[in-house]
Amino acid sequence: MAGMRRCLGFLALSLLGSAHAFYLPGAAPHDYVSGERVELFVNALTPMIAGHDDAKLKSLINYDYYNPSFHFCQPEGGPKKQPESIGSILFGDRIFNSPYDIEMVQGNDTCRLLCVENVPPEDAKFINDRIREDYAINWLVDGLPAAEMKEDKRTKEVFFDMGFNLGNDEGEFEEMPALHNHYDIVLRYHSPRDDVYRIVGVLVWPSSRGGPQEAPSGDELVCGSDVPPLILSETQNNTVRYTYRVMWEKSDTVWATRWDNYLHIFDPRIHWFSLINAVIVVVFLCVMVSMILVRTVSRDISRYNAIDLSEDVQEDWGWKLVHGEVFRTPQNPMVLSVLVGNGAQLCAMVAVTLVFALLGFLSPSNRGSLATVMMICWTFFGCIGGYISSRVYASLGGTNKRRNSFFTATIMPTVVFMIVFLLDLFLIAAGSSGAVPFGTLLLIIVLWFGISAPLSAVGSYFGSKHGAVPNPVRVNQIPRQIPPQPTYLRPWATTILAGVLPFGAAFVELYFVLSSLFASRAYYAFGFLALTAALVALTTATVTILFTYFILCREDYRWHWRAFLTGGGSAFWLLAYGVVYWASRLSLDSFSSTVLYFGYLLLLALFDFLITGTIGFLATYWAVRRLYSAIRVD
Hints:
With 634 residues, the chain is α+β, with helices and mostly antiparallel strands. It is 47% helix and 13% strand. The protein has helices at residues 2-14, 86-90, 121-132, 268-306, 333-358, 369-380, 382-395, 401-429, 438-466, 491-518, 526-553, 559-567, 570-585, 591-629, and strands at 40-47, 110-119, 135-141, 144-145, 147-151, 158-162, 164-165, 167-168, 178-179, 182-193, 196-207, 238-250. A hairpin with a 2-residue loop joins strand 3 (135-141) and strand 4.
């Protein structure tokens, strides 16, 4: 195990310097020959944050590329949908073929006509509104996303920003935006050997070309002439001519590192600062807990055990006075055990997914692989949730094992499914392509009822078979009276105060995660993310143990729910940070986008609450058992 931990630590550290692309073992590059057709696939249009510093995200609604209101050129025979993974669908990908005619290293710098479309006034307004909301067009060529080349203002590094603008609404086009109807497509290729070519980069330079929009006769089409931009009128019909030009550019970039230009880490020093800050907090907490458990507690235990049990010591030592109450069954043990079971299932899912990411199994070219692995892990880890829930329930004195098994397998997935379904209705009402198709929802239900729920029942069976964890001390028949507690140890206060430290260890990384989820920014710094997750887990465990020790010293033995709520306190700060992010980085005009944002934010906070609450509860349960098993009780 120590060797495995060192290996994983080395892999995590190796990812911190730069976000290199890794590929699923067995994946192979596509070797093209001269003149071979290169497919260009189109994906959904997504809102993006503009390039200037004070830019805000203006929408959360995705649109199909072939939405009739856009009037993009369609291939002969109509667009054909491409097969996608469940994770890709859940993340909003809708991939179709396109009419672009591209042949490997052929037709270099040749201006080509794609089609001529008529755009009525109402659709022109729709397009102009999407340009004002900074929508981006997303293409895929050989698994690589089309991008614009940009420069990081802080580090001066050049990188590829995925997607390119539908139009231009800055400067002179602020009142009436210009539509990009011409695309210069730069395809970078690497030739490992003679007559073999591999695509290693896809750049697109869109431009707006007005003037006469009718289809030219003969060879009159010229893409380099100086023409005014194309402004769509919202009061009369418009004619739009779409053109493109393919340019082939030889590159020294090899296929294995072609993603390096895309997976750019903005100012890695911020990530390092976040990690160092988190490490300092964790070390401080660990030292505090060690001092309490090793020095204070050990001294108290020695003194307590040295006293004759016949002497009256019940007026002297705080946490030892409640040794006969500390394992008393808490209120609602069923609910607590179900929450802990589902939290354990989510913990296992996150841990295994991060391990797969660190080992390079989640290739960025395999779209949706992250969500797919998470769905598979969650499905098959139902047995872990059932096992943990049943053992915790039995340890808390619960007797209705069948009901516990049923609730563990159904309550949390039902709540999540209902929230997702309601958000899906808002997406459908807004005409978004991001709405999860009915077939995908049906597949999720099948995974739930057909695999996860039975595995949860199996886990519950084995958990019940192993039975309750034996308590180190007996429980008194008559409950002890609890003295008044100070304000800072009240449940709401400990939840808020304890949640600050785990949140502080992760809030910098949280910004990049939220930008990836809502602003279509690529995030593959899994080394930073894994270390941050480990620090958050350790911080949550230590701070929960610390606060539990404080309340036990105040003779309050109701620690079970307090431990779970204290551990999950970071979810409150996650919600608060989500509101700050919404106010500072988003400018959502539509009601649907606002509902979607806060709906997804609620799901993130719920998952965070379950995961960190479970970590806090299990760590505290372990610490309390160790603490009270060390004292001598008659």
